[in-house]
Each structure stands twice: as structure tokens, then as C-alpha cells.
Here is the input.
Amino acid sequence: MKLRFPDSVVFREEPEGGILFDVDTGDMRFVEGVAVGICSLIEGGMTRDGILSELATRYPAIPPGTLETDLDAFLDDLDRSSMLRRI
Amino acid sequence: MRSWMTSTAPRCSGASEFAAPAAPRSASLLLTGRCNLSCPHCTVSSSGPLGGDIDSAAWLGILDTLASRHVLHLTLSGGEPFAREDFPEIAAGARARPFRMGVNTNATLVGRAEASLLAGLRPRLSRVMVSLDGDGPLLHDRIRGGGAFDAMLSGVEALRGAGIVPGFCCTVTSINASRLEEIVRLALDKGAWVILNPFVRSGPCLPGELELDRDLLRDSARLAFDLSRSTGGRVRGPLVEMEEAARAAKAGTAPARRGPGHSCGGLVNSMTILPDGSVAPCDHMTSLRVGSLISGTLDQALSSEGARRFRARVEAPLEECGECLGCGYLPVCPGGCPVIPWAVEGPLGPDPLSCLRRYLDD
Here is the structure.
């Protein structure tokens, strides 16, 4: 499943974290830590499975089930905020 | 979200690192230095003419640059943006890229077509701000020139006819401070909100007689604060904030100072692009050009020696200034705008328009 930000949503990284900003509504969401990297991977065109694989490589100490559950929770949260599209 | 998700390291591979300075979140685009009015307090001409306008193709290239660096918000301004015949092309170019936008105008050139153009920028158009300096033609036209008041009102009606309720911006000077309440009433009758800015003598080309002396500043700020409270926050801006800061300082509830120096976000949170494509810290500092988006890149401008010197000077501890050393308000000093003390050599002094000691002490 491909993931992408809607055309109206801009993701930008800053020294303290990242921002998702909807230029149509003015809604803004701050993300931090690994979530910044996940957003960057979404922007780079990576699929949900690709991101999960990347996280598993980066965080070998985290049980795979936990990675998957937490990633999906984050993606669902973005989806509910209209800041993510699944294609 | 679990704790591992909010840890800061390591980042996923593919996440970009900060090889270049992050671009400011917002940019003010002074699309032209030309204006059909010639107001004596106009800050963009504070240091003389701004230079020639680049063409619309160059502006579209700049918009591409800003979009690629994920700038979030643009203010399309001038001069008077509608003084450019190709403003519709530039505005449409901004609308086609991922920006949220505001437009600053004197509204005197706004008719049905111009209002319709602005309406077409929605939903990305977050605000239209109209300049207002008087509560009637006598005062407004004294500052802005004959016929400006009626033309402005006509423009505002055109905006409202297109479904846009504008906000207003009033530069409070020694000329109009005595009519501040009436100006606010008019602004809130015709628009959604009004921002009250004290006149800032930001350059040698601006007349000193427009400045608010301390008593007039205090009276204006107190009135602005009261009007803000009584209108549910529809009156905003530095004058309201000045009185808020003063009351908090007196009550001992002021927040601690957040940074070491002046509270200027120039070249970090925001920047101004001048009509010739030059980059400046803000609309008030048009003579301080740190680079060009025509002859150079945004990264070159933001990492230039001029930009570095600017940030170093505004971020220097206030204690380095002899006038601030030992001030009892230093722990809660909001810092203030550097534009007025900038002209004086050495460590930056206090901003006279936000200095608590100047404001509070007799």
C-alpha cells in the first residue's frame, strides 16, 4: 500500500522535529523523534511495508509486533487528521 | 504512541539531515516597491527606493524555490501588490503551489475583478489585510492622500461582496493616536479584526514627528488593551501586547525571558523577499540585504556573512548593552524588535517601543 501526504499537506523538518501543515485549512501538527523519520519516508514515496522493514532494521530491539502496531497507530492517527492518503 | 516512537535517535535512513539551514516557515513577498499612495509612515520606503521589480517569471521561480524548501506561509505585499499589472499571474502561481497565503493591500485599487481574484485564492488565502489610518476622509486622507478613504471603503465593499471579510492594520502615529478608538470602531464595523502597530521609524527616510512619545505610547497601548478585552480579542498587535506585558510584569506573572537577546525571528522564522529578489530579515529592514534569489540561492543568503552577523547581533545577551545592564525587568524582558536600535553601533540597545522600563517607570 502506497502512502502519501495530500497535495495540501506540507511536511517540513526543523531542528526540533517536524511539522505537518495543511495549507488549505491551516491545521498544523508537530511530530518528533522517529515520527519525523517516518514522515520523511512517506514523503520519499515508501510503502507502509517498506517503512516497517526500515524500522525493523533500525530498531532490532523492538519486537516486530510492537513496531507494526505502533506504526499503524501513527498512520491511522494521520489518516484521521486528514494528513495521509493510502493508495 | 510508544516511547520508542518519540526517541530522537537514530533516525530512519532516508530522513534528510540539515546540511543547509532550514528555511523560515513564512516569507513576506514585497512584489513591488510601487504604490499608488505615498504614505509618510510607509516602512518599506524607510531607507529609500527598493529598486526595480523583477518580472513575474522570476517571481514564479522564487515561488518554486520557497516551495522546494517547504516554506509554509506567504504574505503577498508591496508597495501595493495591485500596482503590478501581473499580480494575478503571480497570485495564481502562489495558489498553485503549497502555500497558505495572506495579502496586504491599501484596497484602493480593489474592484469587483480584484476581489474575485482574491476570492479565487481560497481556501489557501487565510487573510486579506487592509491599511487603515483614519476613521474618516479627513484623517485617513491627510495621511494617505486625497480620495484614499472613499477608494479604500469601496475596495472593502468589493471584498465583502466577494465573500471576503478583511482585517485591518492601523499604524498608530502622533497624527492619528487621538482617534484610535474611532478607527477601531470603524475597522470592526467593516472587518473581522484590526492590528494596531505603533509607528516604527525604521529608517532615515521616515519623519521623526510621527513617532509616539512615551505618554502617547502608553495611552495608546492601554486603550488598545481595553478595546481588545471588550471586543473578544478582535483588536490585536504590538500595542495590545505591550500593555499585556506591562501588566504581567507589574503583577509578577510575566513569563521568563525565552532567549538571550531581541525577540526577532528574522531569517529564522520569517524573511522578506524584496521586489528585486533580494532577501532581508523583515519588511522593516529592507536596507539589510543578506543575499539574492536571482543572483544566488536561498541557502547562500541564509548562511551568508550578513545573515550570520544579523543573527549574532540580535541574539546577543541584552546584558551586553549598557542601557539594559542591571535593569530590573531583564528576567521578563520580551526582547523587542531590533530595528530601531539597529542603526546604533555596538551591542543592540532596547527597543523603545517594547522596553518595560521605559514604559513603566516614571
Q: What stands out?
A: Strands of chain B lie at 26-30, 73-77, 100-105, 125-131, 167-172, 194-198, 235-236, 270-273, 278-280, 291-292. The first strand of chain B starts at residue 26 and ends at 30.
